[in-house]
Amino acid sequence: MDDHHPDRSLCSDCPGAVHHREIFPYYDFGSFHHCERRLRNWDQKKTPTHLTKRNSKLAFSPKRAMAELRHSSSIGGRATPSPRKRDDVTSPLSSENHPPRDDDDGGRDRYPRDRFRSLFSNHFQLLDESARFYSHNFKILLLFVTILALAGMYSVYSVISHLNAPYLCTKDGITLHCPRVKEPPSLWENPLSATTSWKPCAERRIGAISGLPEANETNGYIFIHAEGGLNQQRIAICNAVAVAKIMNATLILPVLKQDQIWKDQTKFEDIFDVDHFIDYLKDDVQIVRDIPSWFTDKSELFTSIRRTVKNIPKYAPAQFYIDNVLPRIKEKKIMALKPFVDRLGYDNVPQEINRLRCRVNYHALKFLPEIDEMAERLVARMRNRTGSSNPFMALHLRFEKGMVGLSFCDFVGTRAEKALMGLYRLKEWPRRFKDGSHLWPLALQKRKEGRCPLEPGEVAVMLRAMGYPKETQIYVASGQVYGGQNRMAPLRNMFPNLVTKEELTTKDELDGFRKHVTSLAALDFLVCLKSDVFVMTHGGNFAKLIIGARRYMGHRQKSIKPDKGLLSKSLGDPYMGWATFVEDVVITHQTRTGLPEATFPNYDIWENPLTPCMCKA
Question: What pTM did the predictor assign?
Answer without folding.
Answer: 0.71
